[in-house]
Amino acid sequence: MDEQIIFCGNAKEFLKEDLIKYSNSSNGGTAFRIPSLIKAGDTLIAAIDKQSCGADWGYIELAIRTSDDGGETWSDIKTIASPPARETRATADCYASAFFIDPCMTVAPNGDVILLIDFYPECKGLHNRKMLDKKKIPYSMCDGKLRPALYDRDGNFYVVRENGEVLNNMLQHTNYRVTDWKGSLYIDDDYCGNIFLNGRSGKNEIGAVTTFGAPLKAPKRNYIYMLKSSDNGKTWSDPVDITSDFLIKSDGTFVGIAPGVGLTTKSGKMLFPLYVNNKETVSIYSNDSGESWKRLKNQPYSCNLDEWQMVQAPDGVILGFGRQKRYGKTPVSVSYDDGLHWEKAGKTGVYAPKCQKSFISIGDYVFCSHPSEKKRENGVLTVGKFFKKKGRTAGVTWLSETEINKGFFAYSCLTQIDDEHIGVLYEAQPSSFICFKKFKISDLI
Q: Counting Cβ atoms within 10 Å, is residue 47 exposed (0-12), middle (13-18) or buried (19+)?
């Protein structure tokens, strides 16, 4: 199959002018990054960061396109979640907005599509950590559950009950209430701004719905939100903050999603790959199709895996493949107990630069999409087979490489389309040009 353009930017600041001509109402927006691709029922779902400035901050929405014919044709682009913003401009100088970043999907045992994504209040995320609120706790116990915390300009503490009522630090009633997931704050019946924003409204070059900052604010840090679809991507739930299910003190201001796909194991457990500030891997899991999430709090995770992806071998062993610090072999971790515990497993012979990679397994075979040069260039599909030691899976023997593209190649995501094909969604430019290709499995192995 020839390369298809699935998401295409329309701003010359972020994409070459000779490529902007491919942007249209079906695939277009200001800028795009970070692909996720999954097969749900008979539908392919492609999720993406829909950006205002081509950077890892600014006004970043979550958008999708779907295909019901194996990737031959695709639906028009659809935004499924928009963050609150007080200003939107097509420049990386502007960060006056909350934002989503790094989608990761899997299909739950009940058939729901589960999408996890990072969410930041107004700031620049990991690119300016001085803006983050290191000394403010994000949750406090209320009504037997951890509930979101808010702060006023004097540092006074408040907590938001499940019904949106805001209590003071003595857990007494106030006239404040939070009315939606976006953080709209009211005092009695009067709107008084957004808890995720900092100041007044400004310019709006993207055409978003903008507002202004509230007198009470959520701590500036990373949160993880979940969206669900029960109809293979046609409709989606509102985002729900799940961070308090698994956050621990040592995470500091960041425990983030590793973009791509999660893993639903043979036992029916959903596993998602996360990582924390010191680049250690974190796996969270759900045994109830996303109703609750858990993590082993005292687990020593594998170091230096950063953004990572998981595959499960036929015997149930799970391998995690990470992102190396510089060009070289890919670091690996292994779990022998369905993702509860992880340990280092050395490195494997997939050579790549410092970049996210995608891994999936089909039977005894493992497929990896990644840049193959010392820079983010020349995408390939590397194929291997699981091998065993002492009767259980111990790694992958890599067999062959097939070219995906020439030139720039960065983040990517693989999925199995049917018994004969796999597909890959990938960044074919530094920003705003996300392409799809389909491959026959028999041509790869």
A: buried
